[in-house]
Amino acid sequence: MNGLNTIRMMPARDRVAALREAILSHQIQPGAELALKETAAQLGVSATPVREALQILEREGLIELRPNRGAVVLGITEKRIRDHYQTRAALERAAAILVCE
Predict the structure, then answer these.
(1) Hey, is 87 helix, strand or coil?
(2) Which residues have CB under 8 Å from 54's CB, separation 6+?
(3) What is the pTM of this model?
(4) Rounded to whole angstroms, how far apart are CA atoms 8 and 72?
(5) Of 84, 62, 66, 65, nearest to 75 (Cα)?
(6) Can you list the residues of the chain whose pLDDT is less than 50?
(7) What burial class does residue 63 get, using C-beta atoms within 10 Å of its C-beta: 0-12 exposed, 13-18 middle, 19+ buried?
(8) What distance, in Å, lies between the first and last C-alpha atoms of the chain?
(9) Is-contact 71 50, C-beta < 8 A?
(10) CA distance 49 to 61
């Protein structure tokens, strides 16, 4: 069986990671609705990894989940980035003070 290449299938979680990149690159625009079944079909995975990915994206603040209706893309705005870094700076300052004590 020499000469055959191994077929590498990307794990479902990696294919679903494409959602994050599509949101961040504005391929999926803020305000767009993501339906679970349609998104799973487009990515070629079952609904379970998409559901898990949507939960992660919600925790990251990129989408808003709506029970029984899918999700809405929030996207990234300058204000959200600024708020994120201000929060991070405050936490890092507090951590540095604790370390120095």
Answers:
(1) helix
(2) 19, 34, 36, 63, 65, 71
(3) 0.67
(4) 32
(5) 62
(6) 1
(7) buried
(8) 65
(9) no
(10) 18
